[in-house]
Amino acid sequence: MPSNNEQLQPITSIFFKLYCILTLAWSYILSARLLELQKHDGAELVYTSSTANPRAVDGVDRDEVKRAPPIEVHIGEAESNVARWWMAIQAPKHGWKAVLTKRNDNVYLAPWSIDLGEDELFEILWQGIGTSAPEFADCFPLSSGEALMALSEFCLLHGLGDQFFGAFAAALTFPTNQHYKRRIELSSPTIVLGRVEFISDKALGNEYIALGDDLAYYMALSCNPSVVMSSLSGSFWEPGVPCNLVSSWLHPVVEELPTRSELAEAPGAALSGLVPKVIYLAKSGTPPLDPSGFPWTSSAQNFMDFAGSGPYFACDEFREYAIKRANVWRLLCLPVTEDDGLHYNSLSFSPWPPIGQTKEKNCALRT
């Protein structure tokens, strides 16, 4: 899902600290990996002239232009190419570009590309390795694997634990935000990053790096906004709740959810500001459904994801065979083996099962 350079989604200035830093890194990693997999003509990954302000821990400012007030991000000991990468992903506007292709004077970027805006500024604190005055101009963009390694080391340095995966989930929703034309909102705990000693956790570090082997699958999911929104909306669905009780079921759930302003501190806000849209669709009772959501995520999202149990037909109080309307939907949505006209051309518009039953003689079912 390419995006034009002139239509990058801006990021709003809300709680711009920890989760944001990790999510910006994931934005780069996903974009770089896409270019490595597709290898289109004209594709390129480049740094721009925009950078975050670098400062070595010896107090020497590497940038003559001092921007204030910066958010200090300590990346520990790092080689110049890694420091240059951190400067790029946290630069004002966009410090890097992942160009998928160029057609008719249009530049198409990776769907995780973002415009950071000019107001949110970072200062990169680092301890150089091998030299005290690196030449950043000679640094090439990191590959997706190299960037993933740098991000993993940063998370271990600051003991960020599962925030690594939370930021990954947030970055995966970027294309969906773009699909719904929503501004990206990244939030984080109000923790100021300072210099800490390196914490070695080999098992956790290996878990971080192992995620790189499955990136292609997550990227395919991320580029399908229909499946993403169907899966997120499915978190409000509950098996056994019929359509006539949806309001009673959703009311206490929705009422207990944080308000929009409080979402900035809620875990769901890590999903790049998409949570309010998910809640809005869930309240409607007819959230978007995608039949690929369940087989892709193994998370049931509507009554059609279950085959039902027991015999479909049973005798009613009048000793006539009857079938539940939910099962009628299931049977009429089976794959077509012959064009008999006895099938539905569209799936259910609601995840909640219809109530009641109907008599066998009133059903046009396949025999």
UniProtKB/TrEMBL annotation:
Ranges that cross the membrane: 12-30
Superkingdom of source: Eukaryota
Record keyword Transmembrane helix present: yes
Transmembrane listed as a keyword: yes
Protein name, UniProt field: Genomic scaffold, ProqFM164S01
Keywords, comma-separated and alphabetical: Membrane, Transmembrane, Transmembrane helix
Annotated source species: Penicillium roqueforti (strain FM164)
